[in-house]
Amino acid sequence: MTTALQSVPAKTDTIAPPMLILITVLLLILPALALVTLRILRPNFRFFWLVALGGSLLAWISAWVWLARLPLIFQLPPWQPEALFFDAPAFLADGISWPFVISLVTLALSVVLTAVVRQDLTDPMPWAGTLLLTGVGVLAVTANNPLTLVLVWAALDLAELLTQLRSVETPEASERVVIAFSTRAAGIGLVIWANVLSVSAGGRLDFLSTPPSAGLYLLIAAGLRLGVLPLHLPYTAESKLRRGMGTAMRLISAASSLVLLARIPPSSIISSLTPFLFILTAFASVYGAWIWLRAPDELAGRPFWVIGLAAMAVASALGGSPLGAAGWGAALILTGGALFQASVQQVWVNRLLLVGAWVISSLPFSLTAGAWQGEASVFLPAWPFLLAAQAMLTAGYVRHALRPGIRDTMDSQPPFARTLYPAGIGLLLLTALVLGFLGWDGALQVGNVIASLSVALLSLGLVWAAPRLPFLNPIRAHWIRPTGTSWLDSAYRGLWSLYRVLGRLGNLISAALEGEGGIMWSLVFLAVLISFMLRGTP
Fold first, then answer.
1. In terms of pLDDT, which residue wins out, 394 or 412?
2. How confident is the model at residue 6 (pLDDT cuts 50, 70, 90)?
3. Of the candidates 245, 170, 181, which has an alpha carbon nearest to the alpha carbon of residue 485?
4. Torsion of the alpha carbons at 181, 187, 188 and 194, rounded to the nearest 10
5. What pLDDT, on the 0 to 100 scale, is given for residue 375?
């Protein structure tokens, strides 16, 4: 079976022109900067939307051009000192990173197209933010070594931190934004620690030869940033950013971590801890899928949709299928982007959204067909829970796609919006269908037919039973609220409160030592130390 490692070129002198990577990124970032500049200098400019559409469309076309020239590599000059920086920042486009790239640029184009039915076309800032984040996201998913990935992660985290702090209104929500930023920073720290372990063992950390001692740290780093290991909400739900830029920010952040799962060699994560990680991953997948199934609407359940599909990607990586992890990552962006952008009621759009159920079903020749086949040993007791989680994710997707009562109607929209809006939704789903057959190393996969058929039958059973069983129906009053907290949130808030108490205690001790009584306390500690030393002498 083809793996992620086989797609990396051994020599750079035979690689196609690397400027295609830079061109796509610039086609996203330059229009974003142009929109911001025009907003400041010419606030009455009437063609903001056309600028955003032109940039996203050209970037989308350029990303498809990559397919004819893969693999591509773009490397910066070596950093100094070379004894500290073994690898310079480099970006690789191959059969693993390309599906992430095409998914992200398609998402950006979809956000611009569907904005005609829900956004004021005179405000370009959401489009500028979407294009800028997508450009940085392309750099993240094409990162060719951990150093590059950590740098791009830091840029994405800072951008999301500033955006979220501006969008929330209460101190409690701001605190949750900071907590989410801290968990992502902890993921960066784990990657740095994996690099330290590799160097101390006399090796180097890269995506070609990851030492066994470092592979698990990379996997846990990705799981921590995604909210899977340990299970937690990786970002706050109290935000004004709902559709459009809000969806793009969530999915781009997830994609930047999911690509790491597809880069970890299967041999580097085989350990005695693997069964334990499988149990945690299975629990996260069931928890996220169950709440997603019962969520009152797709936006309320969006955090749990990300956790559920991210847990499936982690399980694929643990099972030795990096291609399966890549498939789950692309499916999360494309199907999730289509569902979360669907803000207007239209019969054909609702039916079109059902294509996403096939994409995440793992049936033969679907985007996620490689999810259940791997080269490493699989922890079999976790399989029933993972299959059940996938079925609940699929059934929940069908329910949210066919729930028209919570969406506005298309009757009041202008004629051009009635054409562009379905095109924006259909573009994401069409890309997901195409990726099942061509363009990357995981295309044309038959997969595990028994597992995929079991998931399909169980999903159909859940869809049939949902209207007939009350406990499967969402109850907005006391089950899940976009601004509410769960027992999981309460646990992490308790840990954060303990951290603040310890911080205050440290500040109190520091103030006591640095104040006017600092000399007295120093003499007291010195006297106590001398008394202990004298007591220990014969």
1. 394
2. very low
3. 170
4. 170
5. 52
- Percentage of residues in the chain having pLDDT higher than 90: 35
Contact between residue 314 and residue 499 where contact means Cβ atoms under 8 Å apart: no
Alpha helical stretches, state H, 296-382: 302-318, 322-341, 347-353, 355-359
Q: Classify residue 513 as exposed, middle or buried by CB count within 10 Å of its CB (0-12, 13-18, 19+).
A: middle
User: Is 220 in a helix, a strand, or coil?
Assistant: helix
- The DSSP symbol for 121 reads T
DSSP 268: G
CB burial string 166-192: b at 16+ within 10 A, e below: ebbeeeebebbbebbbebbeebbebbb
- Count Cβ atoms within 10 A of the Cβ of residue 313 and give its class: 0-12 exposed, 13-18 middle, 19 or more buried: buried
Q: Per-residue pLDDT for 519 more than 70?
A: no
Amino acid at 176: R
CA distances from 299 to 11, 224, 262 (A): 45, 22, 27
Closest CA to 405 of 472, 334, 476: 476
Please state, in angstroms and as integers, the Cα–Cα distance from residue 129 to each residue in 31, 78, 277, following that order.
Answer: 10, 31, 36
- Give kind and range of the element (H or E) at residue 148: helix 146-167
422-433 pLDDT, tens digit per residue, is 899 999 999 999
Distance of CA 410 to the CA centre of its chain: 31
pLDDT at position 390 is 95
Residue 315: how many CB atoms within 10 A of its CB? 32
pLDDT tens per residue, range 330-387: 999 999 999 998 887 777 888 899 999 999 999 999 999 988 876 544 567 888 899 9
Per DSSP, the three-state class of 62 is helix
The burial class, CB within 10 Å (0-12 / 13-18 / 19+), for 121 is middle
What is the C-alpha separation between 208 and 62, in angstroms, rounded? 27
* pLDDT band with cut points at 50, 70 and 90 for residue 478: very low
Q: Tell me the two tokens of residue 125.
A: 């800032």
